[in-house]
Structures are given as structure tokens and as C-alpha cells.
Design brief:
6-stranded mixed sheet; alpha/beta; globular; 2 domains; Hypothetical Protein Tm841, Chain: A,domain 3; 36% helix
Amino acid sequence: MSYKIVVDSCTDLPAEYHKDERIEIVPLILHVGDYTVLDDENFDQLDYIRRVAESETCAKSACPSPDRYMKAYDCDADDIYVVTLSSKLSGSYNSALLARDIYHEDIGKKNIHVFDSLSACCGQTNVTYKIMEYAEAGLPFEEVIEKVEAYRDGMDTYFVLDSLDTLRKNGRLTGMKAIVATTLNIKPVCYAIEGTIAQCGQGIGMKKALIKLSDIVAKRTKNPEEKALMITHINCYERAEVVKNLILSKVSFKEVLVVDGAGVATTYAGDGGIVVTC
């Protein structure tokens, strides 16, 4: 059976997968003041970071329309797997679901499953890689879904950002009981819980926060030899390598990937942000 994976553009994939015929990336729309851009292959990260820094208004995003997802589903593949941002953080998941229902009503029945990643960035990438692994092995559609959902449910997502302002102003921090004072240079270590954001630690300054992050990942990860460690960085490859090496000095993983963030990740994680999933 042929398959296709449809992902929204918060899925931070390595460059070689952007031209992979098995994958289609559905872009979100990014807004910074009066400037609007698609989060697609033309996204210029450095220009966008500059615009965000110079803007008096908060950057934000808009999810793809159901029609855009419909176009991605309209193909020759027998099985369609969709991976979206956490439904608690974006309307992308609901848009993809609506597109599936419309497709079934207007065009006909087809195997289409929408995965709520319960994560973002490299968390979506982690789910996507697992779909590819099982689909390439020739597993039936329903078995791929079952195994991938089990993997997702055992996956953890952590992050440390230079600033939480964009997340807070866009209402993405409702799960956090408190936000520490940035004037004290305290950097929270955050994680995803059931698709929302909470705090699990902190450090004074970025360096100590990243050390704390690596300690938490090493302590909390179960069966790492069966999992992939994936890191999204926003314009800070060297920082990501430090985090990777800190984690790997404590625990080993089946696979390791470091990737630069695309537009949605750049919007919410900000310049210098680090996201880790495993």
C-alpha cells in the first residue's frame, strides 16, 4: 500500500525531507505587524528574526485552512497520515480533521488519520519519523496508527527559551501556574503535558537552565534505547550541540537529530530557543 505523510509547517524536518515525495508540508501563516509570510520553503529565518525584534507588536501565526489540507489529501496514495501541532496550541489539528471529514463526504472514503502530536517542532518530527519507520516496514494502516500513538504517548517535550513573551502574549502559557521574573535572569525549563505547557525546573541564566534541562531529560526518559532524541534550535546550532552532548553524556538513544526551526518554531521559541523531544 502506498502512503503519504502530511505535516503542518511547525514540523521541523531536515532539508532533505522537504523534497521527499512521501511528505507534504502544509504551511501556517505568520504575522509580524503588517508583515505576513507563509511558513514555506521561502521562509527567511534571519530576516524574520530581525522583523520580530524591530516590531512593536507580538508575532503570531494562523493555522492552514481545511481547503489547504484537502488539496494535500487529494493524491494517489492509499494511506494518508497527518501530523499537526498540539490541538491545545493551534487550530491546525481541527482544520486537518475537518478537511478529512469534508473529503470523505465530497470525494469518497480513504484512509486518512490525523495525529495530534501533543507537541510541536521536533516533537512533530519525532512522530513523523516513527510513521515512516512503520509505513516503510509495510505495516497495515490501523497498526501504524496504534503503534505511533503509543510512541507519541510515551514521548516527552522540553524547552528553554530566552524569552517566554511571545508564548504568553499569544495565550499559550495557560497551563503554567507562574512565570518567573525575567529581571532575575531566571530561565524556566518547560515541558509539554497533555499538549499544554508547564514548568519542570529553572536555572539562573541560559547555561544553567540547559544543564538543568539535560539532567531532567536523562532522569525522566524511559527506554531511551528505543527512542529518538531530537532537538530543534532557533539560529543557535552550537547551543544545540552543547545540549545534545550534555544529554548523551548521561544516556544513549536509538537515534539523534539536530535541526534548525522553521517559521512557527522561530515565532514562538524565538532566537536562541531550544526544544528537545524524546
